[in-house]
Amino acid sequence: xxxxxxxxxxxxxxxxxxxxxxxxxxxxxxxxxxxxxxxxxxxxxxxxxxxxxxxxxxxxxxxxxxxxxxxxxxxxxxxxxxxxxxxxxxxxxxxxxxxxxxxxxxxxxxxxxxxxxxxxxxxxxxxxxxxxxxxxxxxxxxxxxxxxxxxxxxxxxxxxxxxxxxxxxxxxxxxxxxxxxxxxxxxxxxxxxxxxxxxxxxxxxxxxxxxxxxxxxxxxxxxxxxxxxxxxxxxxxxxxxxxxxxxxxxxxxxxxxxxxxxxxxxxxxxxxxxxxxxxxxxxxxxxxxxxxxxxxxxxxxxxx
Length: 304
Fold this sequence. Notes:
Elements: H1 2-18, E1 23-25, H2 33-46, E2 50-58, E3 61-67, H3 69-75, E4 87-94, E5 97-103, H4 105-111, H5 119-129, E6 133-135, H6 142-146, E7 161-165, H7 169-181, E8 188-194, E9 200-206, H8 217-224, E10 237-242, E11 245-248, H9 251-258, H10 277-289
Helix pairs in contact: 1-5
């Protein structure tokens, strides 16, 4: 037992030394989905995490959004750190088991330019959920992820989509929450997190109700993912309210960051299948947020 516990303690650090991958496969549970969700929620709360959101984009899948005091502190330390205020945990029932996967905290920290490497968060989640392996791409260094760009002319972390402006932060918060509660254009609310000490808030949005598959969250993952466990921990999508301006990461960055090894073209899964999705996501989110847009131009040169 001691060796098992020790392996969980050192696992995140071993993975980081070898390079980072976007997802972690936790320990599968021999429980139906509903029981597994209750079990995992209880473990997370006892381990110091807060479950700020939960939704089921598919009948056999539940995605939990979690945060912690350490994550909130880290989120407050960089100008757009709100993107790192939450992590996703996916539970997927398949053939009598519920598979648990979650975003790899150090990978997220590097890709989202956070002030912390999130190693303490990775260690805590490994103890709570298990860390059988990391997966989802070939390993990449922190430096590669901090400067990540899928291809020439493609958007980076610093090239977000403008979702519009508002008269004030409080007005923006109220309007966004109201529209998400009404599920404008099929976009619903999964969670909201206020960043400490800032007029900044991040919203996790559910895109499973969007009729256009080019902007439907589940359809995006299913178009490029296969095998078990699926990478539904990619969901939900984040909208960042920063002072009086709302934004979201461009799909050409966010999708590529978490699925970086997919080819541009060819084969069963490729970004070519998502060529209409960046503009579709942009239009859906702009309309759903209801902010005032100065310009609706697309400065990206990306091919998908």
